[in-house]
Amino acid sequence: MREGNAFSVEAAWEQTLLKLDRMLKSIGGKSPHTAGASGQYDDMRLDWWTSGFWPGMLWIAYAMTGKEQYKAAAWDWDERLERLMMQPNHFDHDVGFQFLPTAVIKHKLTGDAEAKRRGLFAANFLAGRYNLPGHFIRAWNGDKHGWSIVDTGMNLSLLFWAAEESGDPRYSHVAKAHADMMLKYFIREDGSVHHIIHFDPQTGEYVEAIGGQGAGPDSAWSRGAAWALYSMANVFRYTNDRKYLRAAQRVAHFFIAHLPEDEVPHWDFRVETGLAGEPRDSSAGACAASGLLELAEELGGTEGRHYRMAAERIMSSLYENYGTWNLPQHEAILLHGTGHKPAGQNVDVSLIYGDYFFVEALAKLNGWTSRIF
Q1: Residues belonging to the active site
Q2: 135: closest CA among 171, 172, 178, 173?
């Protein structure tokens, strides 16, 4: 942290718990995604990709405090998701985002056998999306048979967990193959990343890079960098293969080097018209901070401290400059997130995944040793 910075992780955590208590009363069983100027979170369908983040925040709060109110509110989310799995639905590559913060963490914290079964069920679904010749897990549904996105890297932890829990290595085989594909096609030499890579689904051959939620095919979407940084650190934790650690560090160095003065990234680091006036993405900052803490833990020592200090700087700015602590009626924690700028969707709003990764990173700074991703 900067010299003289008054940010206290303990005080920030206590403030966050107070906020979570208010959120619990107002959000309840809703499946939130975004909160705009009104400060009220929406209520999305359960198979929307963000449905796991709110219960994930509750499980972290339970793990940190032992308070039954958080456990009770989070308890049935994996069951709700599984019921929808048995009906026509829109589940896709993001089942890790949905079942890791519900079924998997529930099993880790409570030993619940049904939660384990549901987590393995979701892992089977995710592994079934693997494209054999292209070595990638297919993104989305519909006609995008050859599309893969950087976000999927964060879902690989579901497969690694399933391999450990079941003793079946096929899950980790798929996860490592997809991670290797990311090293080859998504993460550039300078540490910036693509959002979407299009392959021929029949042959697996590379077709093109697509800008997606970034400014363009060759831009540097900041949340995509956060996904890549964090996911490669996770893959290293599961495999102990240093090529993934080196990739995570390369992305981390790019991310840190391109942060503006207040340490919270613009939505894209590489916009042709320049960054003046471009919106920030607090969710990218929170996710990157949590990923940097993973790097810090894996490396330890002086090298690890470099990443921890970067995470602390980001978290300090998020807490002091982007928090809703003085807006008691606002349901979210962080302001100024950017969802999909090129499409004009969810620009300068609160995002539930930004809130989740803020809570997760803050819990890590306060000694939380369990892991969801």
Answers
A1: 94, 151
A2: 178
Tens of pLDDT, residues 12-42: 999 999 999 999 999 999 999 999 999 999 9
Beta strands in 17-168 (DSSP E): 34-35, 130-131, 136-137, 147-149
Unique residue bearing structure tokens 């003046």: 276
Q: What number of other Cβ atoms are within 10 A of residue 4's Cβ?
A: 5
Under a CB-based contact definition with an 8 Å cutoff, are residues 194 and 148 in contact? Answer: no
Measured distance between the N- and C-terminal CA atoms of the chain, rounded to whole angstroms: 25
Structural domains of the chain ordered from first start = 9-365 (1.50.10.10)
Percent of the chain with pLDDT over 90: 98
- Please tell me the predicted confidence (pLDDT) of residue 2: 38
CA distance 352 to 48: 12
pLDDT by residue (tens digit) across 136-180? Answer: 999 999 999 999 999 999 999 999 999 999 999 999 999 999 999
Q: Whole-angstrom Cα distance, residue 143 to residue 56? A: 31
Q: Which of 269, 228, 224 shows the shortest CA–CA distance to 245? A: 228
Other beta carbons less than 10 A from residue 10's beta carbon: 11
